[in-house]
Design goal:
360 residues; alpha+beta; Hypothetical Oxidoreductase Yiak, Chain: A, domain 1; Ribosomal Protein S8, Chain: A, domain 1; 2 domains; 7-stranded mixed sheet; two-stranded antiparallel ribbon; 11 strands
Amino acid sequence: MKIERSKTVNYKDLRSYTSAVFVAVGLPEADARIAANALVLADLRNKSSHGVTRIPVYASRISSGFINPTPNYSVVRRGPIIRIDGNNGLGQVVAFRAAENLIPLVDKYGLGVVSLFNTNHIGMVGYYTEFVAKHGMICLAFANASAHVAPWGGSTPILGTNPISVSIPRQAARPILLDMATTTISRGMILLANKNEERIPNDWAIDENGRSTTDPAEALKGSVLPMAGPKGYGLALVIDILAGVLSGANFNGLVPPMTAESAQELNCGALFIGLKPDNFIDPKEFDNRIDHIVSAIFNSQKRPGFDKIYLPGGPEFEAEQENKIKGISIAEATINQLLSLEAKINLPYEISIRTLVENS
């Protein structure tokens, strides 16, 4: 039986449910919790394209053998640099382990670099940079993805949406968190619009013939547009080199689509860079200088129609707090896909998205 409308569920219950689903398809409990934390945090921050809507395709690819639920990571260390072979593990788990490996490097050397290959879609990249920033370190992360972006002026997808995230620690406040795709919108938002049978703005994507489209189905056949035209294209290219070429992962259109039907391993790549501010400047001076620029931003004159000026990550942090209180809204299409998935996996009887919906 289908559920015919979207529903709001408690984020803790959704996190427990998500973890149980990943355990049911073969992930160890610790890894399942990492994946669940990453997906539900994306939903809390209104980045639903990287939230639980992704569960069905991840689960399908795990069940089909195209994602390894129990990877044996290969870690090669050369001074402040680590290279990790993710053994085709779930992207959120492998990327989180990479971030964990970065922290002791930065502690020891003042800086550290972790290069990652042979992994899958790693989701919301800010999840990892913020984790590192909470240890008092600046973190930069770059990741490449399936080829869904044409070079500026072209119509053949060659690059990924290739996200970048930078997180800067603050002593008495949440980190400054830049987390963005190098496209006008993440492709996940187009997937979500298609799933929910919604139109998209005409500046998000082009169809396979290079024409603007508001039809998400046509956009999925074509290309997501780079942000800021040639500037976004340039960023996407550089990130493909840093995350793909340098790491030994797939690159330049070689990362296959991440769909349930795609019978190929993705071999995505990522690069994490960590810096310890006190190796550059006195920690108190660093905090004072950050506070100075933040104060200048918050006290600057607002444009007409704007009630508030945010730091990068600010709207997402606000949404997280609101959604923790009011719950996470899950679209009808996602609920029904999860119900279909439950029929194929060995979930405990009492654990179901239906139970979450009915008890919300």
